[in-house]
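W.,

You were right to be curious about this one. When I first looked at the sequence I had no strong expectations either way, so I just let the prediction run and decided to look at it fresh. Below is the sequence, 99 residues in total, followed by the output.
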Amino acid sequence: VGKGELVPHMGSRAYFANTCTAGLYDHKQYLALNLLGKTLRFMVDLSGAGCGCNAALYLVSMQQNDKPSTCNDYYCDANHVCGVSCAEIDIMEANMYAW
């Protein structure tokens, strides 16, 4: 992280939150964006995301999910990846070869 940049590593995730309590996951601390009538704008450098890598940006309703997942947080998605399903909006799934 630096200069407004987030640099993820293989297999990592980043969450947006209103607050953060070290060592504790609380689903009410996750950020719930109200994008109705608004624009989401971002820039991404995919030059380091090679073949077999999926750099993804998606929105899920973690704040509304009150069920801890098997990922030891409140992660949820449409594919039931960590054991909990919720609505998911995919913004980007890409690498340097495909978007």
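Here's what jumped out at me. The chain has a mean pLDDT of 89. And, maybe more interesting for your project: The longest strand covers residues 88-94.

Coffee later to discuss?

I.
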